[in-house]
Amino acid sequence: MTHTPYILHMDLDAFFASVEVLKNPALRGKPVIVGGTGRRGVVTSCSYEARVYGVHSAMPGHQARKLCPQAIFLKGDGAAYGHFSRLIQHKVRAAVPFFRAASIDEFYCDLTGMERFHDPWPFAQKLRREIIAETGLPISMGLASSKTVAKIATGMAKPNGELWVPPGTEARWLAPLPVGEIPGAGKRTIAALVHMGIHTIGDLQQHPLPVLEKRLGKMGYVLWHKAQGYPGSLVTTERVRKSLGHERTFMEDIADKKRLTAVLTRLVEKCGHELRTQGLWCSCVTLKFRYADFTYQTHQQHIALTRSDEVILQTAKSLLAHRFSGRKPLRLLGVRLSDLQDTPGQQSLFEDAMHQEQLHRAMDAIKLKYGEKSLKRASGLESGY
Length: 385
Ligand SMILES: [Mg+2]
Fold this sequence. Notes:
This protein is an alpha+beta fold. It has helices at 15-23, 48-51, 61-67, 78-95, 120-135, 147-157, 170-174, 187-195, 201-206, 209-216, 218-228, 234-238, 257-277, 309-323, 351-370, and strands at 7-12, 32-35, 43-46, 72-74, 98-103, 106-110, 139-144, 162-164, 243-254, 282-291, 296-306, 330-338.
């Protein structure tokens, strides 16, 4: 089973201007421009009613005033924008396996793996409907198998729309679009492409890569790859992690296996939570023992790819049981998960594994909302942290 990445890109429409309309409904339907009020100020956001006149963000205020003299110019309200951004980020972060804010009004989510429990598109649609219902703010989104295609899809869906580019159709879908739609392509680069006879993303797809590289250097390489619409996980491209772990140094050295098991349980919970919120699976568990004399040992065991606390804990407990003699007390105990992957690979899924995953998802959502310490296994409580 190969795993298609599901990347969701969300972008609030004319965010600052939309918040201003929310604050003052009398502005609805009118050209609203945020920023550009001072002598040399630039437009930071403008409503779609203002865009009709050719106004866009980053435009000097005097130019915007010339194009649309009847517009309502506002200074901006950073506190209100921050409030709504946090509100929405909080909601989305709690709902998805991996979240990353690209800016105050633009977010990426990696829904990969979720398709085993929810259909990603209806899930995303519901999330978007809820954001709109709860905040009253328009937001657009695109779902695709890569960041680039998802972001372009959002752009196509605007204003206040949604678009899904199903896996396998990316290159075909991109082909007729102008090259300027590729995120990261600057004006000068686009001009160079057009000069080479490359007008659409399809033209770019067909163009020999060495020619592009020779002409545009690294940018040519980057744009050509973006144009192909290859699938790409948010997790692997954003965060290449080799391992993750937690350890605990004790106030007094501990030799008691029961107490060490309690600490181990907490450490595994912390690692498991981190693993899942980053959309990862692991296949190696390592314990680290540091003794009172500062010598240390590590013991590891390879297992089938997992992200389950239960499986990791079982492995960790068995390592502790077999490798820790109890004769020399420990000064520190550590757990490390490695051989990380962002797909579950060939993992076979049994019903109980699915239920466990759903349980983890619910637990992780609570932890993301109320803090990692809000939910602990009873067996780890006596660890004291
Ligand atoms: Mg926006």
